[in-house]
Amino acid sequence: MPKTAVRPPPPPGTSAAGADHGTTIALVQSTSLTMLVQQALERMILAGDLAAGAKLNEAAIAETLGVSRGPVREAFRALEESGLVRLEKNRGVFVRQISVEEADEIYEVRMLLDEWAGRTLAQAATPEQVRALGGLVDRMVKAAAKNDVDLYYHLNLELHDTLVAFAGNAKLLETYRRLVKELSLFRREALAQGGTMPVSTREHRHIIDRIAAGDVEGAGAALRAHVGASRERMHKARGATHGNAADARRHLAVIAAKRQR
User: Fold this and answer.
1) CA–CA gap between residue 154 and residue 195 (Å, rounded)
2) What is the pLDDT of residues 61-106, one digit of tens each?
3) Going by C-beta distance under 8 Å and a sequence separation of 6 or more, which residues neighbour residue 66?
4) Are 180 and 161 contacting, i.e. CB atoms less than 8 angstroms apart?
């Protein structure tokens, strides 16, 4: 006769069904708490409250957020997967630092993704979607007029995220959001430059006009050019031109080649 698995008895006064239900609730609560911790840490990283390169203390964060260390530990793992922190064995958890060279590579990928989204939307955008995008640009104009960098920054993120979401490819949107998070600190610096927000707003307005007109080539080209201009603004904000960054990469390549000889 086959053996039957024996389930331990539920606590006194609790039915087996009740014990199962309690376990499910505990699991949901634990998962939800981890997600809340992850979201809180992500907000702090993207806002710059937790600076690039900073070491994250598990115990201190748990105390600050009023949770146990378990959800913090799980949140660290999730943030590593999303590219915002790095876990170093025997050293701890650190907010990721992205080099200018890596930022350049991310911008190059973004050019392709944004261009595709622009071309796709120009073919299929509904009037409601165009109005929603136009409304975001209107809000960006007002934020730029007030020189409200923080509001403009968040509206800028929302506009681009909405553009890609409207394109209807969930996998592309997932990849895009990760890239945007990795670039967040670079982009905030660039937008803070004097005169940058009005220029950026004009570029966004042109993009939406091309999408509304059903101009597939024009919408794709406008988005690609906008991302390229954002990259140049990033270099300017960090005291370097794109050409200097390319020269630096070539210089490093020459050094690496010499070491291999």
Assistant:
1) 18
2) 999 999 999 999 999 999 998 889 999 988 999 998 888 898 899 9
3) none
4) yes
Most confident of 25-29, 45-49, 126-130, 197-201: 126-130
Residue 181's pLDDT is 86
Express each pLDDT in 208-227 by its tens digit: 999 999 999 999 999 999 99
The model carries a pTM of 0.70
Residue 170, C-beta contacts closer than 8 angstroms, at least 6 positions apart: none
Residue 207 has pLDDT above 80, yes or no: yes
- Asked whether 175 and 40 are in contact (CB, 8 A), the reply is no
User: Half-sphere exposure (CA, 13 Å, Cβ side) for 6?
Assistant: 3
Which pair of structure tokens corresponds to residue 48? 């710059």
Q: Domains of the chain by range and CATH?
A: 19-95 (1.10.10.10), 100-255 (1.20.120.530)
- Sequence letter at residue 45: I
Sign of CA pseudo-dihedral 159, 162, 167, 170: positive
- The owner of tokens 């940058």 is 196
